[in-house]
């Protein structure tokens, strides 16, 4: 009996142990299941995160199996293919419509990644629903637990715009290098005859020969000035620093002003010139100086690209609410494929054309930009090489009933060199300050010939010393002086005992509107840009003399 009871107790205890063990196992299972659920939830969360990232990146993301079939493709790639997930997954590149050469290229690259375990990079054009694009891609191995490649993953980036930008930068860099080479060439061209002319003037010869040499040197100097002016104008327009001073203007007056500046080139080339202007006013709202510049550039262009003894025709008329000016020639003409690019700055075509006759390839670009700033248009026409060309600009006609502005003062004397002593200002005391010794001394000599009393200095400090025994009526100051700048010198002169009586004129190579404002702020009365037009300087000195006499 006791033995049976003991057995029953043992069985009970064993059952309790098993129950406790089972309960412990169940608790452990519950913990494991909870942990598994947490891991699964975290995994699902990461999967959603990665899928969100891959689906919203602009890059294409995908995975190939070892048989070259797509087993994953993100949304961007599916959109590029124009297919759904079910239509795309499990298919090869060839089955998805890739061109055979393209599919074979990727097949070889997948095999290379499988064999080497190393990434492969490439770049390829592709035509899809996004159009013809250029893609940069990389294939990388996906390793399994055994260290073997079990898949090949890849990403692809659209680099079409980047490649286009790189090509534009390379093209601009080439243009820059070629332009600098042309600039050096074009600046040396007029320097050569100027140097030769100086050598001729040092030798005895008949007055007629010396006059011919002087006129030649003046023409070449004028050419250099125009080159620099065109460069400055293009720079100002490109940076938005040109402001038009528009007023009601008769285009016929602008034509006359332009012809005055272009006649020397036309006559030197022996061209015939026919001008046909409307008998009625041709009024536009325009900056008269810029309009004359535009027309002058077109005339010069015709004169340069027409063989000697050619024919140039200029016409201006009113048509359909516009004032139309055309310049035609029977010269070199323009190739059909060049016509759309003839107004492009530094374009290959314009550079080739400009090299043939000299120039920087910016004259027509300047014309186009100035005309468009006036709300007008300019177009080129030509029947081809050897058949001449016609440039036609059209500007909106001004409203009727508004009084015309006074005629613009002609400045034909600007290119004629120094003014004669007759009629020029005389008797002024003038201080010339320039660190370029030759520039200062030659200008002082010219002023002395015209009857002025001058002193020169080549630094700001020396200029202040000169003032100890010389009270100038006018001071011509360079801005870029060593040590003390021209601005500081002007301020020092203004603060001196006679600073209010001396007329300060900035004579400098810095000629932007910002430079002129800074000159005025420093106390300058006038701002002239080098190389100074002697006729303009002479008129300024006459005005100073008249004011001093009247005062």
From TrEMBL:
Keywords: Kinase, Phosphoprotein, Transferase. Its EC number is 2.7.13.3. GO terms for molecular function: phosphorelay sensor kinase activity. Residues 182-399 form the Histidine kinase domain. Residues 46-94 form the PAS domain. The keyword Lyase does not apply. One of its GO terms (cellular component) is plasma membrane. Residues 429-545 form the Response regulatory domain. It catalyses: ATP + protein L-histidine = ADP + protein N-phospho-L-histidine. PROSITE patterns: HIS_KIN, PAC, PAS, RESPONSE_REGULATORY. The modification 4-aspartylphosphate is found at residue 478. Pfam families: HATPase_c, HisKA, PAS_4, Response_reg. Signal peptide: none annotated. It is found in: Cell inner membrane. Residues 106-171 form the PAC domain. It is a multi-pass membrane protein. PANTHER family: HYBRID SIGNAL TRANSDUCTION HISTIDINE KINASE C (PTHR43547:SF2), TWO-COMPONENT HISTIDINE KINASE (PTHR43547). This is histidine kinase.
């Amino acid at each position: 009996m006791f033995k049976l009871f003991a057995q029953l107790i043992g069985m009970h205890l064993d059952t309790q142990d098993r129950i406790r063990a089972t309960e412990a196992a169940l608790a452990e299972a519950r913990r494991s299941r909870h942990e598994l659920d947490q891991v699964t939830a975290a995994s699902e969360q990461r999967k959603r995160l990665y899928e969100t990232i891959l689906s919203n990146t602009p890059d294409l993301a995908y995975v190939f199996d070892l048989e070259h079939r797509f087993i994953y493709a993100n949304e961007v790639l599916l959109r590029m293919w124009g297919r759904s997930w079910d239509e795309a997954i499990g298919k090869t590149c060839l089955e998805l419509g890739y061109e055979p050469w393209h599919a074979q290229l990727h097949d070889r690259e997948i095999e290379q990644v499988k064999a080497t375990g190393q990434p492969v990079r490439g770049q390829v054009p592709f035509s899809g629903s996004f159009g013809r694009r250029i893609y940069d891609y990389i294939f990388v191995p996906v390793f399994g637990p055994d260290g073997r490649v079990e898949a090949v993953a890849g990403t692809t980036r659209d680099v079409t715009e980047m490649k286009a930008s790189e090509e534009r930068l390379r093209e601009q860099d080439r243009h820059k290098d070629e332009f600098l080479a042309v600039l050096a060439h074009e600046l040396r061209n007029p320097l050569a005859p100027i140097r030769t002319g100086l050598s001729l003037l040092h030798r005895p010869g008949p007055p007629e020969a010396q006059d011919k040499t002087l006129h030649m040197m003046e023409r070449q100097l004028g050419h250099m000035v125009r080159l620099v002016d065109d460069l400055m104008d293009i720079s100002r327009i490109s940076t938005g620093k040109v402001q038009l001073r528009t007023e009601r203007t008769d285009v016929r007056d602008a034509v006359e002003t332009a012809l005055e500046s272009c006649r020397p080139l036309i006559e030197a080339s022996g061209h015939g010139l026919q001008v046909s202007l409307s008998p009625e006013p041709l009024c536009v709202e325009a900056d008269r100086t810029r309009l004359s510049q535009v027309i002058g550039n077109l005339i010069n262009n015709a004169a340069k690209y027409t063989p000697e003894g050619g024919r140039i025709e200029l016409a201006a008329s009113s048509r359909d609410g516009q004032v139309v000016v055309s310049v035609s020639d029977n010269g070199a003409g323009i190739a059909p494929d060049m016509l759309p690019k003839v107004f492009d700055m530094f374009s290959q075509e314009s550079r080739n054309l400009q090299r043939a006759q000299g120039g920087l390839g910016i004259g027509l670009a300047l014309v186009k930009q100035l005309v468009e700033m006036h709300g007008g248009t300019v177009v080129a026409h030509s029947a081809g090489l050897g058949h001449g060309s016609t440039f036609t600009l059209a500007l909106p006609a001004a409203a009727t009933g508004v009084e015309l502005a006074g005629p613009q003062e002609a400045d034909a004397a600007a290119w004629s060199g120094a003014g004669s002593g007759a009629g020029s200002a005389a008797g002024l005391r003038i201080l010339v300050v320039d660190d370029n010794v030759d520039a200062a001394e030659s200008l002082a000599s010219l002023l002395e010939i015209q009857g002025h009393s001058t002193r020169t200095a080549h630094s700001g400090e020396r200029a202040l010393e000169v003032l100890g025994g010389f009270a100038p009526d006018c001071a011509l100051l360079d801005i870029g002086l060593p040590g003390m700048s021209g601005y500081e010198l002007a301020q020092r002169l203004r603060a001196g005992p006679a600073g209010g009586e001396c007329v300060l004129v900035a004579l400098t190579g810095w000629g932007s509107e910002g430079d002129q404002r800074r000159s005025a702020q420093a106390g300058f009365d006038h701002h002239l840009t080098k190389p100074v037009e002697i006729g303009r300087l002479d008129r300024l000195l006459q005005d100073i003399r008249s004011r001093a006499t009247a005062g």
